[in-house]
Amino acid sequence: MVLSAVNELHSHVTADQIYHYIKAKYPSIGRGTVYRNLGILVEEGKVRKVEVPDGSDRFDFTLENHYHVECVKCGGVFDVDMDVISELEKKIKDTHGIQYLSYDIFFKGICPECQKKEIKDV
Length: 122
Prior knowledge:
CATH architecture of the largest domain: Orthogonal Bundle
Helix content: 25-40%
CATH topology of the largest domain: Arc Repressor Mutant, subunit A
Number of strands: 5
Largest sheet: 3 strands, mixed
Number of domains: 2
Order of helices and strands: HHHEEEEHEH
Shape: flat
Radius of gyration: 17 Å
CATH superfamily of the largest domain: Winged helix-like DNA-binding domain superfamily/Winged helix DNA-binding domain
Distance between the termini: 44 Å
Strand content: 15-25%
């Protein structure tokens, strides 16, 4: 049910958005059930968790490595249409003895909807 919701919503949704989406169809579902199952789906590699700096984690239906952009106006998170920089970890110069495991590249911008609102407000 949770995996279906992530795929049906087809965007970078928060756990709370997923919960409300499922609750509309299944009113007896508990928030803890949704959150717990999201954690399991992330561990199993069926859903990608996107940790948003200074924001709520998002859950992504796209599992391949890719980059994201966050709208600084509305907080929306979107995919960036570009090739992944291969072997980026190998290019990092480490002077602190850190073993790098993964990375997220997060851009900031203004989404088309917020750009339209800015034009209307002018």
